[in-house]
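Risk register update: the risk of archive-format incompatibility is retired. Evidence:
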Amino acid sequence: MLNRLGAVVAVLLAAGLPSAALAQPATGPERFAPEMEAFAAADRAAAPPACQIVFTGSSSIRFWKTLAQDMAPAPVINRGFGGSQISDVNVFFDRVVAPYRPRAIFFYAGENDINAGETPDEVAADFGRFMDLKTAKLGAAPVYFIALKPSRARKGQKPLQDAANAKIRAMADARADLDYVDIVPAMLEADGSPKDIFVADGLHMTSAGYALWTAVVRPAVERAAKAPC
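Archived output:
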């Protein structure tokens, strides 16, 4: 097996394949380079005006394909990138948030962080760094934190998600520029189990899930749309 693998590598190198192509897939923030370039290309093609409302975070934002129509007439920009953690949003703050000079920011990330082994304290600390970046670059622009959702595939992580949510809710209680948007109750059955609003992976939502989110998030967007910019 080793000899066969060595032979394959030798053939690829002989063919002039760049050595980088033989490396392992990127696991750090650099894995999002294609998404960042896609955002940049979209902006070059049609630069969005300032003072819109930016939605950013992980795949629950990325896959919200009906976001614009769900929030109309409020102007929104979707800058979610799948698989991201809060620290990744921080790394790319100057690519997915700051350039748009947004009127408000809706933020969903943290679920992947818990799944990757971070503690609720670490999740809250990472989000605190996001708020520091926001304040430094965008001043008092309001941020709306969408609570970590109770996904069917991650039922066992709900106590940790609840603890992270509680810490960020407390942060919101202490800050005039941060609101907590609690989508959790709408996603649960009376017995506390997640509703049947997920695709086959038990993690990403169906249109029914996004309809529940819209009912909770839209009123916050309507408030945010009235904020000065």
